[in-house]
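Section 3.1: Structural characterization of target chains.
Under the original work plan, the team committed to producing a structural model for every single-chain target entering the pipeline before any wet-lab resources were allocated. The record below documents one such target. The sequence was received from the expression subgroup and is listed exactly as submitted; it comprises 430 residues.
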Amino acid sequence: MHDIKAIRENPEAFVAGWSSRGVDQAEALVADIVRLDRELRTAQTAGQEALAKRNATSKLIGAAMGRKDMAEADRLKAEVEALKGDIATAEAVENTVGKELHDLLAAQKNLAADDVPDGEDEAGNVEVSRWGTPRETGPSKDHADLGEAMALLDFEAAARMSGARFAVLKGGLARLERAIGQFMLDLQTTQHGYQEVSPPLLVNDAAAYGTDKLPKFADDLFQTTDGRWLIPTAEVSLTATVMGRLLPEAEVETPIRMTALTACFRAEAGSAGRDTRGLIRQHQFYKVELVSITRPEDSEAEHDRMTICAEAVLQKLELPYRRLLLCKGDMGFGARKTFDLEVWLPSQGMYREISSISNCGDFQARRMDARFKRKEGGKPEFVHTLNGSGLAVGRTLVAVMENYQDENGRIAVPEALKPYMPAGMTHVGA
C-alpha cells in the first residue's frame, strides 16, 4: 500500500516510479488517484461541516422551545433534517470514493529502491557475484529421469491421485528431502539467530492482503470452502504475526527474525507450459522461509544479511550459484529491492532460481497496519518487512540430485546432510 499523502505531495515521483516498473499510463493513473483523493477529502469536509452545523442547530431547538417559539423550533428541526440528508450524502460519497481509491492504491506495485537497475524483464537483471565452479563434465541426467530410474520418484501415481504438478517421493529420496529441510532449519536457527516458528498453513483475507497476495494474486492461491487461503509461502503467516500491532521500539532495535519449514501451496495459474515435468514448479512443496521485521533505518543492512544467510545453505551444500540484483521490471509486486539466488543445474547447463530475498520497505506494513513507537516519542512509524527463501526444499533437492549424481545413477549424500541421514548412508539409490 502507498502513502496517499506522499502521492499528493509528489505525484511526479510516483509517475516516474511506476513507469520504471512497467506500469502503463502511469501519469493517468496518478491523476486518477489525486482526483479521487481530492473528491474524498471534499466529501469528508462537507460531512464534517454538516455534522457540526447539525449539532449546533440541535442546541438552538431546545433554546427556541424554552422561549415557546414553536415556529422557530419547527424551522430549526426542518434544517436539522436537511442537514441529516447532507451528512448521509457526504457519507455515501465518502464510502464510494474511499473504496475506489483504496482498491486502486492496493492494486499498485511497490516503488523500487534508488539502487535498483532499470530494465523491463530478466534480461535487465545484474549479476552481483558467483560462488563455486559449475559442473560441466560427468553425468548430467535430469533429476526427474534420475528419480524415476531409481524408482524413488513417481509422477504417475501422483497424477492419478492429484493431477499434474505433484510428485510421490519414496525411500532414500524422501529421506533426503526431509534431511534438506531439517538441515536448513537448524542452520538458520543455531547459526544465524532466526527463531523457529510453526505457523498456520491456512490464513484469512487480512493476512493474505497484508502480505500483498490479495487481491492481485488470488488466482495463484488455493482457497478452502470456508474462505481461508492455503499459504503460498510461510512469508504470509510469519509476517502476519505483527499484523495490527504497535510494537515498542525495544522489540525491533534488533530485527525480529523468524524462520519456518512448511508445506506451501501454489496454483501456478500463470505458469502454463513452464517446468511441467519434475520438481521445480509444483502445486505443493516444502520451503524454509526467512522473515525479518525491522526499523526503517535497519532494513537495507538486514536485506544483505538475509541474503548471506540464504547463500550459506548453498555454500555448505557445495552447490555452485550466483547472486542477481533484479531490475525494476522483474521484481515481485511488493518488493522494493530483490536479490535472486540461482543454483547450477547440470542437466540444463544453466543457473536456475532457488531463492528470492526481498526488502518490501513499509509496503506490507501499511497494508497490515504494523507499526512501532520510538523510545523518544513521536508518532508511530511503520516497520519494514523482509522475506526470503532459505531455501526452497524441492529445488534444493533437484540441485543436490543433479550435482551429486554419479556414473551409476546414484546420488552421493553431501557431507552437510550426512548427520540427517541413516548412519553410514553415503548414497541414495545404491
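DSSP finds 13 helices and 17 strands in the chain.
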